[in-house]
Amino acid sequence: MRIERIQDINDFKRLQRHWNELLKQNDLNNPFLLFEWMNAWVESYTDDYSLYLLVGYSRDKLVAIAPLALNHKKELVFMGYPFNDYASFILIDKADDFFEAVFQYLFAHKQDWKKIILDQIPENTRLLRYLNDPDTAVRYPVLIIPSDRCPEMRIDDPDKARKKYNKKHLRTYINWFNAQGELQNTIHDTVESTLTAMESLFQLHINRREKTPFPSHFTEVKHRRFYRAFIRAMFPLGIIRLSQLTLNGTTDLCMLLSFQHEDSLFLYATSFNDTYARRSPGQIAMKYIMEYALENNLKRIDFARGDENFKGRYTNYIKQNYLATIYSGKFGKKIHTLYYAFKFSSLATVLYRNKKVQSLKFTFLYYNRVSGMAVALKETFVSLFTKKQK
User: Fold this and answer.
1) Helix, strand, or coil here: 118?
2) Under a CB-based contact definition with an 8 Å cutoff, are residues 90 and 56 in contact?
3) Pairing state between β 142-154 and 317-327
């Protein structure tokens, strides 16, 4: 197996005609590994990352790709990080020697990086099996921990699927909106209308996050640019699905951006109008999404990473992603092993579930974002001794 490193963007773009064909032979095939997704990320975040793409050749034939990039901290990460819900290497069926060849190359060039962060590796992938192999742990300082959980709805029985959204309270909400005017759900069928509607999704997301400790990514110009770029690139592939729920054609209630890939629908970005939160526009939008999946004979709806409450209403299967960190030396692994031992301990779990602790955390993060550290400490201290009024 011959390994070559690609650092030049033009050399990366020359892989386009081979990339997606190679992906079809990979054990993991999803929208976040497509060339079009990767290229949009590279073009949008060129100031934050430099390419460190490793490709494998067998008898001068391209058989494998390790889509990696280097950030300013000299950390190697997957291309698309941290916006890809699933990530891995791309290789043909009989090229497992690529994994060892890649890590031999990386450790022969340790001066280039300080740490390798491979996040969102799905369970049951060849890459994860290689990293979990005891022989790999002997050769390289690898630490693997659970990352995000990924709920999905497997549509084995359409009638059972329909029962998930044919609920009395949902019909009540729909009737209420229809009493106010015309409730309409639109799936945009042109790239132009999709890009125009995306501006509404950006604003809904920004508005929802404004009063939380976690501002919307869409406040950043480059993040909005990334979305526009991958929509332009992926729309001709027939993958992009943007559904827009409106009242009277003017008031946006909920937006859902999805990827339809092979027999699955991947929900990626969502937002709803807080003004109508009590009428659950998100649940209504999900009803239309599920009807779309059934009408098009899709086999599953992938809710992607994160186990937010609304996903639990429709989920019948949970997948687990993993974070693999590879250190240049054993000391870094030991330090982080101690940290994660506490993070996943019973004490940490109790603290995480404690409502008072979570309230203090929320207070500190919010005021630190909007008013600075001094105000955040003051408000957190006040909250510590303030009883919540019933």
Assistant:
1) strand
2) no
3) antiparallel
Tokens of 201: 């999704």
Amino acid at 350: V
Which residue reads 């027939």 in tokens?
Answer: 238
Average pLDDT for consecutive 10-residue bins of the chain (390 residues)? 96 95 95 98 95 95 97 96 96 93 96 96 96 94 92 92 85 94 96 97 93 86 96 97 96 96 95 92 92 95 81 88 89 67 65 71 69 79 66
Q: State phi, psi for 82 to the nearest 5 degrees.
A: -100, 30
* Helix runs in the chain, H state only: 9-13, 16-23, 35-44, 97-108, 126-132, 134-139, 158-165, 168-180, 191-209, 221-234, 281-295, 309-312, 330-343, 346-353, 355-370, 373-384
Give the integer Cα–Cα distance in Å for 68 and 7. 10
Structure tokens at 175: 């009737």
Rounded to two decimals, what is the model's pTM? 0.86
Cα–Cα distance measured from residue 118 to residue 140, given in angstroms and rounded to the nearest whole number: 14
CA distance 195 to 388: 44
Q: What residue ranges define each of the domains in the chain, with the CATH number in brackets?
A: 2-149+321-328 (3.40.630.30), 156-298 (3.40.630.30)
Q: Please state, in angstroms and rounded to a whole number, the distance separating the CA atoms of residues 157 and 302.
A: 16
Find out whether 91 and 22 touch, Cβ atoms under 8 Å. yes
3-class DSSP state for residue 142?
A: strand
Q: Under a CB-based contact definition with an 8 Å cutoff, are residues 29 and 17 in contact?
A: no
Of 76, 292, 44, 335, nearest to 188 by C-alpha is 292
CA dist 51 and 112 (Å) reads: 12
